[in-house]
Design a protein that fits this description.
The complex is a heterodimer of chains A (about 210) and B (about 400). With about 210 residues, chain A is mainly α. Chain A is built from seven helices and no strands. Chain A folds into three domains: about 90 residues, no CATH class; about 40 residues; about 60 residues, no CATH class. The two termini of chain A are about 15 Å apart. Chain B is α/β, with parallel strands linked by helices and about 400 residues long. Chain B has three domains: about 100 residues, Sandwich (Immunoglobulin-like); about 60 residues, no CATH class; about 180 residues, Rossmann fold, CATH 3.40.50. Chain B is built from twelve helices and 13 strands. In chain B, helix 5 links the parallel strand 8 and strand 9. Chain B is elongated. The termini of chain B are far apart. The chains are: A mainly alpha (about 210), B alpha/beta (about 400). At the A-B interface, helix 1, helix 2, helix 4 and helix 7 of A face helix 3, helix 5, helix 6, helix 7 and helix 8 of B.
């Protein structure tokens, strides 16, 4: 029963979702939208689970003084401070100028931007590794990358040729590879869905 | 000054002769355009039953005759004698209008199914108009099959048939060959390395929600990886971005430990929620990588801009890294920064590769046949398009 019920729910829901794609009737739309609403509702309740998990793991680490427990303490402090500030009575938290929004805009957003900006440096180091012309394929990659990068740079009389080459690379070999990828992904996704709906793939339920 | 005044007067006076008032035009302005004819109202096909399509024959003065039609107004009433209300307009030259109503009963735009409506079309010029005769009643109703999606339906059936045939063959014991994937072959080695080093394995499911196919594929791989880590008694850390994903991952890992006969070493706190903010999550995971120094990192699922930051940090931490995603923009980053990458469909196929079960391998073979059909269709389509065989191309046209 422990396996049959989840499998039945998965299978019936999966087949319904497949069938409703081909039936435009209102009743089917309604069930589909209702199911999507349920996903949101479950997501909201699951957030409580997430909150519990984060608190439980962090508190345990702080209590046991495991290496790096200070970070968990900061995470807990940040979590509860934002919660308290967000629930200050008599003050709307999601309006501009509130303490909550101040912390969000002037602490959280810059920190997030700093993390994102790391990407620029990592792209440089990854590009260095990827573009080393050690093999024929790596050399082709390097030459293609140079052509694509230079398409935004004015190169005088060479601009026209470079633009043509860049457009050719993007619209012919690159697009062909992308389409092959998407076809493969489409078929793979359908096969995975089929395996799950038919109960052939049940490993996500903990059974081989 | 006087000369200028005389010149201006002369200009104005002569303009009366050069540009005489167009009496005929002025008269035409007041003439009504001919009314549209043959107004028909019928259900809009392939919809949920809240839309009626109105068609008519253009006014004789639309693009011809007096040529004074500017716009057509479509009006609707629930009785032929009743008060008609304006439903929409289309410019001159067009003869179809879709009266798209709302399905919500509370909406002022609600258009009920199976209720008869009458339409009239007004050909409108500059302040003047003429109405058509009232149409026969038309009503909206929902369809039981979207005919525009017929090619998709056939493709789903054909692909399912391929998969089922090969599953059946596999069940009967037919040996199916699948080409080896380096990323999959490396999984055992990566887990073994972590065991030898006495360090944990870090498994990142990505930023996808539990309903995404990449996340579901990641769960299936996680189950097999977790079973092996349970057998080797190697800890596995799974920081999650989504609370629902965390709940499913906990169950998956728990069941895998149970299957391996080691439920005693399962630790729920190793599968934990971190945050639902993209770069806060990256910061958290990077912190874990640099503090715990996991021997192996798996990045399998849906990844976005964070992919390279995670993979580069893992590389700095000296971990063996296996990645896989169906996000095409992130694949180059993973290829550049990790040791093995599962590209697109390989991620979905990984579970079958790891399990080596004939039934699962059967679906892979079905996929291969599906690809063969797609390739043949592409070649035939290219030939048909070059030779203008529109009939063949229309077989593949999908209307959403």
């Amino acid at each position: 029963m422990r396996r049959v019920l989840p499998f039945t729910i998965v299978s019936v829901t999966g087949f319904f979702m497949l069938v409703q794609y081909f039936i435009p009737r209102e009743e089917f739309e309604w069930i589909y939208e209702w199911t999507l609403d349920w996903i949101i509702v479950i997501g909201c309740f699951a957030m409580l689970l997430g909150l519990y998990s984060l608190t439980y793991v962090s508190v345990n680490k702080v209590r046991r003084k495991t290496p790096g427990w200070g970070y968990n303490l900061i995470a807990l402090a940040g979590l509860f401070f934002m919660l308290i500030v967000g629930f200050v009575p008599g003050q709307e938290s999601l309006v501009r100028g509130s303490v909550f929004m101040h912390l969000f805009e002037y602490v959280y957003v810059p920190v997030q931007a700093a993390m994102f900006s790391l990407l620029a440096f990592y792209i440089a180091s990854a590009a260095y590794r990827a573009f080393r012309a050690r093999t024929v394929l790596a050399t082709i990659l390097l030459v293609s990358a140079v052509i694509i990068m230079l398409r935004l740079v004015p190169l005088g009389p060479l601009s026209g040729i470079n633009q043509w080459l860049a457009n050719f690379i993007l619209t012919v070999p690159n697009m062909a590879a992308k389409r092959a990828f998407w076809i493969g992904v489409g078929l793979g996704a359908t096969a995975t869905a089929l395996k799950i709906m038919l109960g052939i793939e049940r490993t996500y339920m903990g059974r081989d | 000054m006087r000369k200028v005044a005389i010149f201006v007067f002369f200009l104005l006076f002569s303009s009366i002769f050069v540009f005489p008032p167009d009496k005929a035009f002025a008269q035409e302005e007041t003439e009504m355009p001919a009314s549209p004819t043959k107004v028909e109202a019928s259900d809009t096909p392939n919809d949920n039953g809240h839309s009626i399509t109105v068609k008519w024959k253009l006014s004789a003065d639309d693009g011809a005759g007096k040529n004074n039609v500017v716009v057509y107004e479509v009006l609707r009433s629930d009785s032929p004698e009743g008060e008609f209300e304006l439903r929409g307009m289309v410019p001159a030259g067009e003869s179809v209008f879709e009266d798209q109503g709302a399905k919500d009963r509370q909406s002022p735009n609600y258009l009920p199914s199976h209720k008869k409506f009458y339409y009239t079309v007004r050909a409108k010029g500059d302040g003047i108009y003429s109405d058509s005769e009232v149409s026969a009643p038309g009503y909206a109703y929902g369809q039981w099959f979207h005919t525009g999606k017929f090619p998709v339906f056939v493709a789903v059936l054909a692909f399912s048939a391929f998969a089922l045939i090969f599953i059946s063959l596999a069940r009967k014991g037919k040996k199916l060959y699948v080409r080896p994937l380096a990323g999959i072959e490396a999984v055992d080695e990566a887990i073994g390395r972590a065991t030898e080093m006495g360090k944990p394995i870090l498994y990142i499911i990505g930023l996808g929600s539990a309903d995404m196919i990449a996340t579901i594929a990641s769960f299936t791989i996680l189950s097999r990886v977790a079973k092996k880590t349970a057998e080797y008694q190697t800890p596995i850390l799974i920081p999650c971005y989504d609370a629902v994903v965390m709940a499913v991952a906990q169950e998956t890992v728990k069941a895998a430990y149970l299957e391996a006969g080691r439920p005693d070493i399962y630790k729920e706190e190793n599968v934990f929620f971190l945050t639902s903010m993209q770069f806060a999550y990256v910061a958290g995971v990077n912190g874990i990588m640099l503090r715990e120094r996991p021997a192996t990192n798996f990045y399998l699922g849906k990844f976005y801009a964070e992919s390279l930051i995670l993979a580069e940090t893992g590389s700095v931490a000296g971990s063996i890294q296996i990645s896989g995603t169906d996000e095409i923009a992130q694949i180059p980053f993973f290829v550049a920064a990790t040791d093995y990458t599962l590209i697109g469909e390989e991620l979905y196929a990984a579970s079958a590769y790891l399990g080596r079960e004939p039934v699962l391998l059967g679906t892979l073979k079905g996929q291969d046949w599906g690809k063969a059909v797609v390739i043949i269709s592409l070649i035939l389509g290219a030939i048909a398009a070059s030779l203008h065989f529109q009939f063949f191309l229309d077989l593949f046209r999908v209307q959403l």
